[in-house]
Design goal:
The chain is an alpha/beta fold and 175 residues long. The protein is built from five helices and five strands.
C-alpha cells in the first residue's frame, strides 16, 4: 500500500491531491488548494504559507510518496522563478518529513492521465474525475495535483513491474 501526495506548485495557489494505491486499485483520499495569496504580496510570507500547508497535509495524510510537477519555462522569467521558489517550499516540507521526491514534467503528467501530453486543463479535470470516480469535477489546481499523484502511481507501478521482471530474469539465469 502506498499513499501518494501530489503537488501542483504555484506562488499564489498550490494544489494538492492525495490518493492511496493498493496494487492496481487507486482510491481518492483528499485534495484541495493552499491559498498563499491570503498571505499577501510578500513572497516570503507566501512561501511560508506553502511550507506550512504542505507540512500540515503530510501530518494529516501520512503519505509514503511525494510527487511534484517540474518547473516549466514560462514566457515570463519572473513567473518561472516564483514557481521554482514555491516548488522549493513544498519540497523542503516533504524532505523535512523524510519523503523521497519524484518529479514529473507537465507533459508526462498529461500523457499519463489523459493519454496526450498536449491536453488542456478541462481534459485533465475530466479524466481525474473519471479515474477516481469523483462525484464532482475538482477545482483546476486540485485536479492537476491529483494528476501528479496518478502519474506517480502509474510510474511507480510500472517501475515495480519492471524490477520484478528483472528479478525473475536474474533468477532464471542463476538456475
Amino acid at each position: 500500500m502506498a499513499i501518494i501526495l501530489g503537488i501542483d506548485p504555484g506562488s499564489r495557489f498550490t494544489g494538492y491531491g492525495v490518493i492511496e494505491q493498493q496494487g492496481r486499485s487507486i482510491t481518492y483520499l483528499g485534495s484541495g488548494c493552499i491559498k498563499a495569496i491570503a498571505a499577501g504580496d510578500d513572497l516570503g510570507d507566501r512561501l511560508q504559507t506553502i511550507y506550512a500547508g504542505v507540512s500540515e497535509i503530510i501530518i494529516q495524510f501520512q503519505p509514503t510518496m511525494f510527487a511534484i510537477e517540474q518547473v516549466f519555462m514560462a514566457k515570463n522569467p519572473d513567473s518561472a522563478l516564483k514557481l521554482g521558489q514555491a516548488r522549493g517550499a513544498a519540497i523542503v516540507a516533504a524532505t523535512s518529513a523524510e519523503l523521497k521526491i519524484a518529479e514529473y514534467s507537465a507533459r508526462q503528467i498529461k500523457q499519463s492521465v489523459v493519454g496526450t501530453g498536449g491536453a488542456d486543463k478541462t481534459q485533465v479535470q475530466h479524466m481525474v474525475k473519471s479515474i477516481l470516480k469523483l462525484p464532482a469535477t475538482p477545482q483546476a489546481d486540485a485536479a492537476d495535483a491529483l494528476a501528479v499523484a496518478l502519474c506517480h502511481a502509474h510510474s511507480h507501478d510500472s517501475i515495480s513491474k519492471l524490477s520484478g521482471q528483472a528479478t525473475k530474469t536474474v533468477r532464471r539465469r542463476l538456475r
